Amino acid sequence: MFAQYTHLDSYEEELLSRGCRTIVGVDEAGRGPLAGPVIAAAVHIPFDVQIEGIDDSKKLTAKKRAELYRLLVEHPQVVIGIGRMDSDEIDRINILQATFAAMLNAVEKLPLTPDHLLIDGHMSPRTQLATTPLVGGDGKSRLIGAASIIAKHVRDQIMLEYHAKWPEYGFDSHKGYGTKKHLDALKMLGVLPIHRHSFAPVRTVP
Description:
By secondary structure, the chain is of the alpha/beta class. It has helices at 10-17, 62-74, 87-93, 95-108, 142-165, 171-174, 180-189, 200-203, and strands at 23-29, 38-44, 79-85, 116-120, 131-134. It is 41% helix and 15% strand. Helix 2 (62-74) packs across helix 5 and helix 3 (87-93) crosses helix 4.
């Protein structure tokens, strides 16, 4: 029935064949960094809409991500929700639960009710909605891939804003990850409010 839409992946085709029409891909950016928020995106692309180049955001250049981000957010039929959990919430409830909370927040911000969620990873947040977790889903599902692009681009822009405020930490280059430059800055300059105090490299800074 949907064979004419050759851009669809097997997961979307299977759900469409089961009667699902409002399928949403969910992914996050920022689970691993020592600073900044975790951002989640929920994306619905109608099955008759094709956007070329969607892939795992980690495989794309920043320029390509920005281009696809623009195409996605400006497309009148693409529906996007974005969730955010900052470092204080990550410290309070742990990064896994903060990631799940950001994902659910992103879904709640959608102006529609999904039939099914395709979620990157091996676990799904607790929800009454039907879900399918996919390990490596950002490279397997166009919907999760789109969500990964949105989440990564949005988070990178936030980290650039932090760089403008604290340029000596180098957030423009490492985006909060635990690089040598970042760890050296932590030791020399100390911990910022946006750092995740529950993460070991931050927790051990005098």
